[in-house]
Amino acid sequence: MTSKENILISLAEKISNEDIRIIDLTNTLSSEFPVIVLPPEFGQCDHFSMETISKYDDNGPAWYWNKISMNEHTGTHFDAPAHWVTGKDLPNNSVDSIPLKNFMAPAVVIDISKECAKNSDFLITKKFLIGWEEQYGQIPKNHWIALRTDWHKFVGSPKYLNMQNDGAHSPGPDKSAVEYLVHEKNCIGLAVETVGTDAGQAFDFDPPLPAHSILHGNGKYGLQCLRNLDKLPTFGSIIVANPLKIENGSGSPLRVFALVDGQNDEL
Known about the structure:
The protein is an alpha/beta fold.
């Protein structure tokens, strides 16, 4: 048995005995799960739908299966660079061409849940991130940046999309924060509990929707509609996010999970 095989077997054993725990970061995909709402002049994201083909009946006496339909960006989902005009000409920009190694990466969890509880439109800035690093430690390079807002607790209520007369109201980063994470921290991408990586009011930012524009224009990724970020440590978890291998796909619903140290005192 080689050293590499020993490492993999040791990993499997640690997962089996829960020395390494698996945390599900995925919301259940159903027709009731909300989707992003764009200005009415644009095309809209379809909800998930499922139609039974057979369920141990005349259409199939021994089997159960369904026909499903959805947008690539429905439910807990992955954004590839091709999703945005800034990333449309990049190499390996669709879900079928992204290197497999990029679907597994360490994460740093930035807890802004208290700020978001006070202000639904809370914005993360570069200044905020630098102050956070002074308190908790440097944001490592090549990590997912996971924003813990506790927004997943609003799933099933109007508060999740938080639509008002002037559009959605939800937290997110401003231009300075995204540029800092991309250019100075070389992040893998941004992982959020809200319906999009941008703040709800980001259509009116300069530039509009800076998370999408800057992340995808630099070959970075997005994860949306996550849950259970409150169960991850600030440092030391691994996020596994494998989208469906859709030809030229701009994104995909997926099952996202994290690996965490079962002995971590922070959990």
